[in-house]
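Dear U.,

For the methods section draft, I wanted the exact inputs and outputs in one place so we can describe them consistently. I've listed the two proteins in the order they'll appear in the manuscript figures. Please don't edit the token lines directly; just add comments below if something needs changing.

First protein:
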Amino acid sequence: MLSMFEVLAPLFAVALVIGPLWYFVSKGVNAKNCKSRLLAQISIFSGVFLIAFILQFNGLTTFAQEAETTISIVGTNAQGIGFFAAALSTGLSALGAGIAVAAAAPAAIGAISENSDNFGKAIIFVALGEGVAIYGLLISILIINNL
């Protein structure tokens, strides 16, 4: 069970990082004070990060030692290759879909700007590019279901 300190410490750290940023933005930003405010925000963030790292270092090593003693899940090489194949199918299909949408979307925008009646014809090519990512995700789900 988490102690009250473990629950409130992250919230306090977030307040320390976001609080000054909110104050800086509410007072207005101009060219004269922008550099000093940015340096102040970076130093506050670095200080909070360093304090959190120092305070949690012992707790993380204890947690890791407990996890080593309780978890003993062993998989086969075939399962590892299956998970790798699922990751590749998802990642490469998303990469291909990104390239397809990056090529089709500007052309579709240009066609729509010239003639608004071309919307239905142009959006099909953008949707086909996004469909590639969905097919890759479907294949990875089928691979993981068979493991």
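Second protein (the one for the lower panel):
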Amino acid sequence: MKDNNNNSKQVLLSVLGVAILVVAVVGVSFAAFSYSKTGEKVNTITTGTISMNYTEGENAINLTNALPMTDDVGKALSDENQYFDFTVTANITGTTTINYAITATKVDPDSTIPEAGVKVYLTDMDADGDTPISGYETPKKVSELTKTSSDVSGAPDGDYKLTSGTFNATTTHKYRLRMWVADDYQVTGTSQAFKLKVNVYGTAAAQ
């Protein structure tokens, strides 16, 4: 009887041993299992397109033998070479916004009249042909203009700012610049001059 019991125990142990081995194999199989799937959908983000264009007119201001004049006279200058026309165009698709600035820089060393002796007057030609830019209803001396500093338009520091704003759609602005000798400037017997260049800058605003 003891031998039979021993045999039964051996058989049972053998069966348990096989069962443990099967569980161990299955466990290894699960541990080695991995899954991967390559997606088929393409997710896309596309920026809008932006561009700016600055076009100068045929005329440039060239006031020779100029004498000091009042603002009323200066604002009405309309003969050839008494004003400077230029156009700024923004082409935008999407929701992009452009911060822009129109600035002026004095041409040295050709400019001998001080900034306080020259007045500038910028007007927007879009509405009725001579509508003043907001904030520039009256002429200003060059010395009174704000200078650019870390400007959002990307303009370099130190330019004289004529005007600034934003474009958020395709837009064209036509501008006219006039400048003249201020009526409180004392003209000397020596010929003097003041030369100015117009610049346009623009930078896409952060979205």
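Candidate sentences for the figure legend, describing the second protein: Confidence is low (pLDDT under 50) at residues 11-18. The longest helix spans residues 2-31.

Thanks,
Y.
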